[in-house]
Here is the input.
Amino acid sequence: MSDQRKKKKLATRELIKLTAKASFSEKGIAATNTRFISKACGLAVGTFFSHFPDKLSLVKELFFEDMDTALKSASDATYVESSHPVIFFEFYADILFRFYGSHIEATHLVLMDSLLKGGFFTKQMQVLQAKAMYKYCSVGVDERVAQVFCENIVSNFLHVLLSELASSEFVPDNAKQKLSALNKPFSISYQSAVAANTRHL
Here is the structure.
């Protein structure tokens, strides 16, 4: 494929994404079909499917791009690295709660698809869990105990997220407070480990 054709294909893909994003925002995802998107772009429906196999794949690409932007723009590496495991996890949880709250319809679609297929959500939680485990272990918590702590922290996040998504209104601040309350024992356990570790120095 020539460079010119590659550029044209990329431009068409971006046009589809921009058009879809505008319609999803205005009309909703369910009310926007592939025929409408194709027509609004001045494309044949077949051209849409040459870029995206279905509407969900388009929704997912937009969702992940927006999530990546949200995480990068809100992330403070110095703060995160200086925090203990629960604060570290809840820092990212707060960003995600706010993102999910502003992308409710897409979150329902993408999250359910991911939970069924073991996709992005599972991988994202595995990364956060591994980093939180490292923070526990660095202050002397046994690795198996740290794993149990972190598995529970992830389970609490999922419990709060699904509860909020099932309610009539997703309120990120409420979700954050509920998660902090559930995680309090694991925060105390970390503080106790730090104190014990300090006494042994």
